[in-house]
UniProtKB/TrEMBL annotation:
It comes from Amycolatopsis saalfeldensis. This is Diguanylate cyclase (GGDEF) domain-containing protein. Residues 228-239 have a biased composition (Basic and acidic residues). PROSITE patterns: GGDEF (PS50887). Residues 76-217 form the GGDEF domain. InterPro entries: Biofilm_reg_signaling (IPR052155), GGDEF_dom (IPR000160), Nucleotide_cyclase (IPR029787), Rev_trsase/Diguanyl_cyclase (IPR043128). Pfam families: GGDEF.
């Protein structure tokens, strides 16, 4: 009888140990799941911080370039639109960097609204945006609407942007019409370089003609795009620009 009682006590104790171990295991499992969730959230936040601009929410240059390079071969009518915001440095220096950030956000939002969800937008420099587009049949009106929408008033000053657009046909039209030339014209780096050249002419027009916004297409007025590019087309100092205006955003 005593032996039976002792065995019962031992069995009960063993069961208690098993239950306690199970509870500890479940508690540890919940803790591990919570820790993994926190780690995943932290890694996602860090990844987003590295991929996306914190001011505008647009892709940063490296992420934009990677994604655009993957998309480009699948677009029927590709084009690169290069955008340089006018007067950003002046706004930062004379009003505040907060006002400058709001100017950037407003122009980014207007570009999103006008160009649509299919446009791949990125911020590739302090005052520079770029978009990879698959142009619709009505593309001149679509692009011009985006240009016109980017006149923004900041504390009584009308700001805007200079736009340069380049298509493969614009590049290959100035080169020998060979299969190799057609293929090279669809390279992202050459399209970006051509759009940047066109944007510089638009920037010049903004200054000399007192315009808030201007659009230029890559063409005969621009230098030929080198077949081999060994420099960053965005590596240049930021410019200040000019007045004029229409749509207003008050800060």
């Amino acid at each position: 009888m005593l032996l039976f009682h002792l065995l019962a006590v031992l069995a009960t104790a063993a069961l208690v140990v098993v239950i306690l171990r199970d509870r500890r295991a479940r508690a540890l499992s919940r803790l591990q799941v919570h820790q993994l969730s926190q780690d995943n959230h932290r890694l996602t936040s860090e990844n987003n911080r590295l991929r996306y601009d914190t001011v505008t929410g647009l892709l940063l240059r490296e992420s934009w370039t990677t994604t655009a390079s993957q998309m480009l071969p699948h677009l029927a009518h590709p084009a690169v639109l290069f955008v340089d915001v006018n007067k950003l440095k002046r706004v930062n220096d004379t009003i505040s960097h907060r006002a400058g950030d709001r100017l950037l956000r407003e122009i980014a939002d207007r570009l999103r609204a006008q160009l649509g969800e299919q446009a791949l937008l990125g911020r590739v420099g302090g005052d520079e945006f770029v978009a990879l587009l698959d142009l619709p049949a009505s593309w001149p009106a679509t692009v011009q609407s985006a240009v016109d929408a980017c006149q923004v008033e900041v504390a009584g000053r009308t700001c805007g942007a200079a736009f340069g657009l380049a298509r493969p046909v614009d590049i290959v039209g100035r080169e020998s019409p060979t299969a190799a030339a057609h293929a090279a014209s669809r390279r992202l780096d050459r399209l970006m370089h051509a759009a940047d050249l066109a944007m510089k002419r638009a920037k010049h027009r903004c200054r000399t003609e007192n315009l808030a916004t201007a659009l230029e297409l890559y063409g005969e007025k621009d230098p030929l795009v080198p077949e081999h590019l060994d420099h960053d087309p965005h590596a240049r100092p930021r410019d200040a620009a000019v007045p004029a205006g229409d749509q207003h955003l008050q800060f």
